[in-house]
Amino acid sequence: MKIAVLSPVAWRTPPRHYGPWEQMASNVAEGLVKNRFDVTLFATGDSVTAGTLDAVIYRSYEEDRTQDAKVVECLHISNLMEKASEFDLIHNHFDFLPLTYSRLIKTPIITTIHGFSSQKIIAVFKKYNTTSHYVSISNSDRSPELNYLATVYNGLNTENFPFIDEPEDYLLFFGRIHPDKGTSEAISIAKQSNKKLIIAGIIQDENYFKECVEPFLCDEIVFIGHAEPDKRKELLGKAAALLHPINFNEPFGLSVAEAMLCGTPVIAFNRGSMPELIKHEYSGFLVNDIGEAVNAVTAIKTINRCDCMNWATENFSQEKMVSDYIKAYKQIL
Q1: What's the chain's Rg over C-alpha atoms?
Q2: Widest CA span of the chain, in angstroms?
Q3: Is the pLDDT assigned to residue 43 strictly greater than 90?
Q4: Is the preceding peptide bond at 108 cis, omega within 30 degrees of 0?
Q5: Which value, to the nearest 10 degrees, does the dihedral of the CA atoms of residues 43, 49, 53, 55 take?
Q6: Which pLDDT does position 229 carry in this prediction?
Q7: Which of 39, 92, 183, 279 has a 20 to 30 A CA-CA distance from 126?
């Protein structure tokens, strides 16, 4: 079976630091190659894959700002669609734009919906509802207006997140520095718990960082910027807990699964997909506010880190994800 995997071109595939959609496109492509599928990854030219790489854009537009994002995306998507007849199936990780080609080609398209940037884009998904195949990354992120083939949880290469049984005495915030992600709330939780907090991630909202994060930085509240893969797994594995006090209904949350794979429990606000990712009082704690999060910090040691790792491995491994996608492919074909 010949599969085309269409990745975004905002970042390299897999990303050097940030780029969750690109990371999942990579994990799917590499997992399919391991299962002996003939895979072509459509991504930036500097991307890395064990399959065949097809690219018309060398560097991502976030890393090379001299490029026009819309132009780059147009060239990238059309490159695949003009070669669609060469493949049995196209796996789209590029959101709604590729759907506009779907009725012009014979090759079926399966689209992983990684979240809705706006309710306005649902109109495009609705237009192709009866002729496309949609997969959600959590049950909580489904739109009642769309038909879904399956829910497939994001899957990670477990070898990249080694288990650490004896953590250090710090809390970790790992994610975009943005009000949605709750960096400010994480600072409040750490301060009220009298715990050191390490903050890692790209600054996505400069004003928020300057007003709500930077004034509180000190020896006990440390900002280190984005973390490369080796630093990422070290931070996640050695943390006593990951703080995830989100202020939006997050579709998935990769750092949550990554932390649990290392054995690190997660304290998260009970929104979006969190009840699907975290088994309350087993792999972490689902809380409703800062006060409950502070109480959860005192209960961290009641979580068995081995149980935490096993839960994440059973539900959020690359092998599990790829197996579920192969089942979806067979339903389509």
Answers
A1: 20
A2: 60
A3: yes
A4: no
A5: 30
A6: 83
A7: 39
